[in-house]
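Hi support team,

I've been running sequence recovery on a batch of backbones for a student project. Most finish fine, but this one hangs at about 90% for roughly twenty minutes before it completes. I'm not sure whether the input is malformed or the queue is just slow. I've pasted the structure tokens below so you can try to reproduce it. Let me know if you need the job ID as well.

Thanks,
M.K.
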């Protein structure tokens, strides 16, 4: 039996919420990560958690010291929402907001 559902999302935050059952991020963590993702779209730096991206995100989140975001970066890494590749942090591929569609097959073998 095949069923297909379509879930429309209109923001990075809502896209992250869609996958949050896997990553178990808090609402604040979701907000911070979505802001980091949005911030990274403005620059050319491939590092999601670069100083520049953290500065942009901190301003958007009204956080005075962008280094406070380092605590969130560690949590995201521990929860596998991001991964470190060399010196850069990258999003888990499930959280790639450029994805146009995702297909999930669930097999109910009893």
């Amino acid at each position: 039996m095949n069923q297909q559902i379509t879930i429309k999302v209109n923001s990075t935050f809502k896209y992250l919420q869609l996958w949050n059952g896997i990553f178990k991020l808090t609402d604040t963590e979701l907000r911070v990560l979505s802001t980091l993702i949005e911030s990274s779209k403005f620059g050319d730096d491939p590092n999601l958690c670069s100083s520049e991206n953290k500065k942009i995100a901190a301003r958007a989140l009204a956080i005075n010291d962008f280094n406070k975001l380092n605590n969130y970066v560690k949590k995201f890494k521990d929860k596998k929402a991001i991964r470190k590749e060399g010196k850069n942090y990258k999003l888990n591929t499930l959280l790639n907001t450029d994805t146009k569609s995702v297909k999930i097959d669930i097999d109910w073998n009893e």
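--
Follow-up from support: It reproduced on our side and the slowdown came from queue contention, not your input. The mean pLDDT is 88. No action needed from you.
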